[in-house]
TrEMBL record:
It comes from Halorubrum xinjiangense. S-adenosyl-L-methionine binds at R37, R67, D82, D108. Dimethylates a single guanine residue at position 26 of a number of tRNAs using S-adenosyl-L-methionine as donor of the methyl groups. Pfam families: TRM (PF02005). This is tRNA (guanine(26)-N(2))-dimethyltransferase. Transmembrane segments: none annotated. Residues 1-28 are annotated as: Disordered.
Length: 376
């Protein structure tokens, strides 16, 4: 069946009955990833101003090629790769039908990256974890590595051993699990890049629905890689009062008891990425590149606006969870943020969910700020 996306017409397999995503004709296509693809196109547009030399784009797991086709329409020199021969035929036909240059190749992307690299932009969009492709991508990527991960349960600590195996880190299941997942993913990718003496800095990231997406800009050099690794560290988290503290450094020094409530139920997660997950100016530039021909333009603008305004400190609080702890009815999010700011703290919403909030204030300080006299 033909679908329209971003002003292009692309042939994709029919979804199975009742499925929102599918492998209907054998080749994979997920219509609910349109937001991810719209943000990708806006990012590719904005990235051209940031790095005008970036020209080649590898759609490393192309399936129908829809991502590569959209990148080719933006003027990138596109290679679509897939191990599935039907996918390669479909991607080639889709490039052709849209009158776009670009090649579709039947290759394992790891072999392709080592044989044909470097590529300026590499886009990893696998089933589940991107880790089996990360070494090849960072070794053979030049400017920008775009990564989707859909294995959110291992990433956020819900499937702890799987997370430890895949990501070489200890993620912990907390009330800020989408952020835990994103920071675990970035940590593993940054450590992978460092093996090749490259710094990988996230210039845009988001967690939407059931996936995490991050765009990492590369800088070559052992010194740059060392600097980048300094943004890794650990988070201690109290399961009783939700106190948490982020500590940079390669080696964790877990706390024995929560300094806020004395509980010994303190979890330590890490190494996770403690640095910014996005560059606010770049996120604003990407937002400006969202155009009305994108099916998810409205959601993309909202998402990117929130990402750009978000405090870049780890970690966010769930406002409803805080009010539950306080035994009070929650107020509106904007009002909550305003009250915390009015008390002299930094605060912002966070894109991870509608009730996510970030602040430099501690939980008791937030309570005092929003409940005032009622706090006692
Ligand atoms: C989630 S789908 C990609 C979806 C696509 N990027 C989109 O936006 O619709 C994953 C694809 O990766 C392909 N794949 C899996 N392992 C691969 C490998 N080692 N090299 C290249 N492609 C691979 C699969 O055949 C499948 O088509
Ligand atoms: Zn505590």
């Amino acid at each position: 069946m033909d679908i329209e996306e971003g002003g292009l017409t692309v042939s994709v397999p029919e979804a199975r009955d009742g499925a929102s995503e599918g492998t209907g004709g054998g080749v994979f296509f997920n219509p609910t990833q349109e937001l991810n693809r719209d943000v990708t196109v806006a990012t590719l547009r904005a990235y051209r101003d940031r790095e005008p030399r970036a020209a080649s784009y590898l759609d490393a797991m192309a399936a129908s090629g829809i991502r590569g086709v959209r990148a080719a329409a933006e003027g990138y020199r596109v290679t679509c790769a897939d191990v599935d021969a039907d996918a390669v035929d479909l991607a080639a036909a889709n490039l052709d039908a849209n009158g776009l240059d670009g090649e579709a190749v039947h290759r394992d992307v790891n072999a392709l990256l080592y044989d044909e690299g470097p590529f300026d932009v590499v886009d990893l969009d696998p089933y589940g974890t991107p880790i089996p492709f990360a070494d090849a991508a960072f070794a053979n990527g030049r400017n920008l590595i775009c990564v989707t991960a859909t294995d959110t349960a291992p990433l956020c600590g819900a499937h702890l051993n799987s997370g430890i195996r895949k990501y070489g880190a200890v993620p912990r299941n907390t009330d800020y699990h989408p952020e835990m997942g994103l920071r675990t993913l970035i940590s593993a990718l940054v450590r992978t890049a460092a093996r090749y003496d490259k710094a990988a800095r996230p210039i845009l990231s988001h967690v939407s629905r059931h996936y995490a997406r991050t765009y990492l800009e590369l800088e070559s050099g052992a010194r740059a890689a060392d600097d980048c690794l300094e943004a890794l560290g650990h988070v201690d988290h109290c399961e009783d009062c939700l106190w948490r503290e982020a500590t940079p450094g390669h080696i964790a020094d877990p706390v024995a008891a929560c300094p806020e409530c004395g509980s010994d139920r303190v979890l330590t997660a890490g190494p996770i990425w403690l640095g910014p997950v996005a560059d606010a100016d770049f996120a604003r530039a990407v937002r400006r590149e969202v155009t009305d021909d994108m099916g998810e333009a409205k959601r993309a603008r909202k998402l990117l606006g929130t990402v750009a305004r978000e405090l870049d400190t780890p970690t966010h609080y769930d406002q409803h969870r805080l009010y539950k702890e306080w035994g009070e009815p929650a107020i509106g999010m904007e009002e909550f943020v305003e009250r915390v700011r009015a008390a002299g703290h930094e605060a912002s919403r966070a894109h991870y969910r509608g009730t996510a909030v970030k602040s430099t204030a501690s939980i008791p300080e937030m309570r005092e700020a929003v409940l005032g006299d009622d706090a006692d």
